[in-house]
Amino acid sequence: MDDAELSYVKGAQAPPLREDTIGEALDEAARRWGDIEAVVSVQQGVRWSFAALKAKADTLAAGLIALGLSQGERIGIWSPNNAEWALTQFAAAKAGLILVTINPAYRTSELEYTLNKVGVKALVAAAKFRTSDYLAMVESLAPEIATSKPGALEAKSLPTLRALIKIGG
Fold first, then answer.
1. pLDDT at 11
2. Within its chain, how far is the Cα of 87 from the centroid?
3. pLDDT score for 150
4. Mean of per-residue pLDDT scores for the chain
5. Is residue 8 predicted with pLDDT exceeding 70?
6. How do the domains of the chain map onto residue ranges?
7. CA 135: distance to chain centroid?
8. What are phi and psi of 17, to 5 degrees?
9. In CA terms, which of 22, 38, 57, 74 is 20 to 30 Å from 98?
10. Any bridge partners for residue 132, and if so which?
11. What is the pLDDT of residues 63-95, one digit of tens each?
12. Residue 166 pairs with which residues in a beta bridge?
């Protein structure tokens, strides 16, 4: 047996794997359990049912597409755990985007490296977390944010980034 054969393991075949997408799974959950809670964030005072999560995910997915993001492009999330994190995950899946999770402990240089390495087109970010001012860190890398139009950022140090989306209004 060569190394290539050893690197692949085929698991159980029964029951067969489901072939629906994450977005389709959310749609089915909303259909089946619409009024049941899907996301609870006690610290935020948020309680969303499956139906509410689906509606919010559909709206955010449409907004991401309206920003000019296309299927297969990368969207980053830089935030601690919160309801918007889960929402972004489902919206990205519904829009056909690849979600790139950014470590909440990253400093400015690590953020810059990551965004450029993977070609993130849009970044969803919390304003702050603990001692980190995320927005100030992004703005230090892309001062062009202050004068750019939504979805049309052209930052010298972050050439692929087109949009910054702030969590929390």
1. 77
2. 8
3. 86
4. 93
5. no
6. 18-166
7. 16
8. -65, 145
9. 38
10. 129
11. 999 999 999 999 999 999 999 999 999 999 999
12. 125
Decide: helix, strand or coil at residue 164.
strand
Residue 159 phi, psi dihedral angles, 5° rounding = -65, -25
In this prediction the pTM is 0.88
Is residue 1 predicted with pLDDT exceeding 70?
no
Length of the chain: 169
CATH number among 3.40.50.980, 1.10.30.50, 3.30.230.10, 3.40.190.10, domain 18-166: 3.40.50.980
Per-residue DSSP letters for 82-113? -HHHHHHHHHHHHHTPEEEEPPTT--HHHHHH
Dihedral-angle region of residue 125 (phi above 0 means left; psi in -120 to 50 means alpha; beta otherwise): beta
- Tokens linked to 153: 């950022």
pLDDT band at 3 (very low <50, low <70, confident <90, very high): low
Measured distance CA(144)–CA(46) in Å, rounded? 33
Of the candidates 20, 168, 142, which has an alpha carbon nearest to the alpha carbon of residue 80? 168
